[in-house]
Design a protein that fits this description.
This protein is of the alpha/beta class and 305 residues long. The chain folds into 3 domains: 3-84, Winged helix-like DNA-binding domain superfamily/Winged helix DNA-binding domain (Arc Repressor Mutant, subunit A), CATH 1.10.10.10; 89-160 and 260-303, 3-Layer(aba) Sandwich (D-Maltodextrin-Binding Protein, domain 2), CATH 3.40.190; 162-258, 3-Layer(aba) Sandwich (D-Maltodextrin-Binding Protein, domain 2), CATH 3.40.190.10. It has helices at residues 3-15, 18-25, 29-43, 59-84, 97-102, 104-114, 127-136, 193-204, 218-226, 236-239, 255-258, 273-289, and strands spanning 48-51, 54-57, 89-95, 118-124, 141-146, 153-167, 185-187, 212-214, 231-235, 249-252, 259-267, 302-303. α1 packs across α2 (18-25).
Length: 305
């Protein structure tokens, strides 16, 4: 079943005549007859009641026409969106939990106000999971901890974050990962890039963390740390928005671990008007705040501009 068959079926249903439908579609009647028979064979039912020179929709044909009409309308809408070059239709966006909490509320409000025709859906996952979804084509764009080293993915730096370590109030100053060796680590799943950074720091300092407890909420992480049960890493901007900051101690991390850039990424072959519009809004928001960092670009990608 394809769009051509659906168009043929709909036109015959509307005109009630193979000859008239063939004329409108610039085809010969025998071609329509063959294609419609193929469609009925594929569906396993008769869509028409054939009466000499006239065709009438069968009961199943009436039901099928409703679906065919909707499918054809959606295909026309998709073609119009692509050709017009204007943001429109569905837009599946992904983001890290921290980015969704501290960077996206104002940005998405502006996006919705400027492009009301876009049906934007947001899902939050770890960077690793988001990158996999971009590669698979199930997300149009995502905000992840970068850079991202896949040839099919392109992107640009959108935000800069500073990661900090939080511990109990009785924690002594931390000079290296060895000072917190054996401490329980509260973190997201293994695909979380911030977790990977922290684990890399432990390896570089020849230290080993204690048990890892996976938690899917920064609020819960902070509460666990405040109870004296272990440590966690999170963006400083997230910590500043959490209640009870005075219940934990905050420790800086080495620059190569603490300095994190959030990238807007998309497939190279799918830089749609929806993605382009989001990129432009990020640029405008950064310019308005006069907060665009002078960051070193990774090979193959640039600061959003």
């Amino acid at each position: 079943m394809d769009l051509t068959q659906l168009k043929m079926f709909s036109t015959v249903a509307e005109t009630g005549s193979l000859a008239r439908a063939a004329e409108l579609l610039h085809r010969v009647p025998s071609n329509l007859t063959t294609r419609l028979r193929q469609l009925e064979t594929e569906l396993g039912c008769d869509l028409f009641i054939r009466e000499k020179q006239r065709l009438r929709l069968s009961p199943l044909g009436h039901n099928f026409l409703c679906y065919a009409t909707r499918i054809l309308a959606l295909s026309e809408e998709a073609i119009h969106m692509a050709r017009a070059g204007e943001p429109n239709g569905n837009f599946a966006l992904g983001a890290m939990e921290s980015t969704a909490a501290i960077r996206l509320p104002a940005l998405l409000a502006s996006y919705h106000h400027r492009y009301p025709e876009v049906a934007l859906s947001l899902s939050t996952h770890s960077s690793g999971e988001l990158i996999d979804q971009i590669r698979a084509g199930t997300l149009a764009a995502a905000l992840v901890d970068g850079p991202v080293a896949y040839p099919e993915i392109h992107g640009c730096i959108s935000f800069q974050e500073t990661l900090v370590l939080i511990a109990g109030l009785d924690q002594q100053p931390i000079a290296s990962a060895r000072d917190i060796a054996g401490k329980t680590l509260f973190t997201f799943r293994p695909s979380c890039s911030y977790r990977q950074r922290l684990e890399r720091w432990f390896r570089q300092d020849d230290a080993t963390p204690g048990p890892v407890m996976e938690i899917q909420s920064y609020h819960t992480m902070q509460a666990c740390v405040a109870s004296g049960a272990g440590i966690a890493v999170l963006p400083l901007a997230v910590l500043r928005q959490l209640p009870g900051q005075d219940q934990v101690s905050v420790h800086s991390l080495p620059a190569h671990i603490a300095d994190a850039a959030t990238w807007l990424i998309w497939r190279r072959d799918a830089f749609s008007p929806n993605v382009q519009a989001l990129k432009q809004l990020i640029i405008e928001q950064a310019d308005n705040l006069s907060a665009r960092p002078a960051l070193e670009h990774a090979k193959g990608a640039t600061l959003c501009k």
